[in-house]
Amino acid sequence: MSSTRVARRLALGLSAAFVITGCSDTSPRPGAGTSEQTSSASPSTGSASTPSASTGTPSAPPATPSAATPTALAGLTLPQVVGQVFMTGTSPSSAEDATLASIREQHVGNVMLRGRSDDGVATTARVVRTLRGAVSDDATGSIPLLVATDQEGGAVQVLRGRGFSDIPSALTQGRWSVATVRSRAATWGRRLRAAGVDLNLAPVLDTVPSPAFAPRNAPIGAYDRQYGFTPQVVSSKGLAFFGGMEDAGVVATVKHFPGLGRVTANTDTSDDVHDTRTTSTDPYLQPFADAIAAGARVVMMATATYDRIDPREPAAFSRPIVTGLLRDRMGFDGVVMSDDLSAAQQVKDRSPAERAVDFLRAGGDLVLAIDPAQMPEMTAAVVAEARKDPAFAARVQEAAARVVALKRDHAAG
């Protein structure tokens, strides 16, 4: 390894022993339900106060990754910088050839363990080590992978088997005390860490309006993915889960901004999904505001269209929602990631190339596309756009710097 690469690694606080692992898709187990979606909610007009330890949030929340420090990307080629803003998928049971190729050839810097596995902790850890073995100077500039999975519980639990607990649904967790949710989430998080997973695509902070509406709320309520039926309960119990994950050294992801609890169709399996109720000052945004105040480092965007905020674009492609609402109004400066942009029916009207470019242009940082076959088209499109548009190139640099800062801060934590 060159002295430049070594210096960069040390500057990032990353060592050869730095282990970060992956994340899986959000489809429920057979017969259980579909992959993730969110209900819309907005912060109340007052500023959100930082929840106390009694709400289950970390007593000393980690610092939000600061945005652009260009030195964090020094020495990387443009394709390597672009690779840092992508996360693709692999089976939890084996590191797929296409995924390994995306790391080595498209410089993709992040992987999600998707699907379902009953293989247990030891096998999952071996898969993660294989993924990490693809990291090199030529592939990612020796910047380690961020590997994620989706371990909500209930219908959405990717990793099972020896060493993993069966996690109840969020609605069941929502009936426990805050202390119990946090304690058990910390236990589940330690199992993820033992498997090499650093990023959990949970908790769901979407609020479903009522038990009566839940069966009609295809992405969330129909599968008991909500912690309760008021923003207050969702915030209290969802942030307890968040706090437990962070206690265990796993980065938690709050989703799906600005909320999927009020929609009736699932963006994974339906197109033209609209939320007709959520506004930019909606009380259902309060759980997200509370999570930001508590130090959330990653927020996942929904792909529904929010007619009363931006009727023209799905949330993940909406600058008024990603930059105007989440960044500017709510003050979030961490990593904004997309829901899956490779297979969702809601985004099928755009090419894979357009999905990646449009998400980044709106203000997003981390493109989740679990199909590695789309990586050549997506990464090439972002590189080409950055080469011809200096403003877009600066946007990509900012996004990559946020992702690398998350890795650095997580390694140091």
Written description of the protein model:
- There is one protein chain.
- With 413 residues, the chain is an alpha/beta fold.
- 36% of the residues lie in helices and 12% in strands.
- It contains 13 helices and 15 strands.
- The longest helix is centred in the C-terminal third of the chain and has 23 residues, at 390-412.
- The two termini are 25 Å apart.
Structure in a nutshell:
This protein is of the alpha/beta class and 413 residues long. Helix content is 36%, strand content 12%.
Quick tags:
413 residues, alpha/beta, eight-stranded parallel sheet, 12% strand, globular
Helices and strands in order:
Blueprint: H1 3-12, E1 39-40, H2 78-83, E2 86-90, H3 97-105, E3 110-113, H4 120-132, H5 137-140, E4 146-149, E5 151-153, E6 156-157, H6 170-173, H7 178-194, E7 199-200, H8 231-247, E8 251-257, E9 259-260, E10 274-275, H9 286-293, E11 298-301, E12 305-306, E13 310-314, H10 319-329, E14 335-338, H11 352-362, E15 367-368, H12 375-388, H13 390-412
Parallel strand pairs: 2-3, 2-15, 3-4, 4-7, 7-8, 8-11, 10-12, 11-14
Antiparallel strand pairs: 1-9, 5-6, 12-13
Helix pairs in contact: 7-8, 8-9, 11-12, 12-13
Radius of gyration: 19 Å
List the secondary-structure elements in sequence, H or E.
Answer: HEHEHEHHEEEHHEHEEEHEEEHEHEHH
Portion of residues within helices:
25-40%
Mean of residue pLDDT values = 87
- Spans with pLDDT under 50 lasting ≥5 residues? 1-68
Q: What structural class do the secondary elements suggest?
A: alpha/beta
Strands of the widest sheet, in order across it, are 14-11-8-7-4-3-2-15
Alpha plus pi helix count: 13
Instruction: Report the sheet-strand fraction.
Output: 5-15%
Shape, per Cα inertia axes? globular
Separation of termini? 25 Å
Largest sheet: 8 strands, parallel
Number of strands: 15
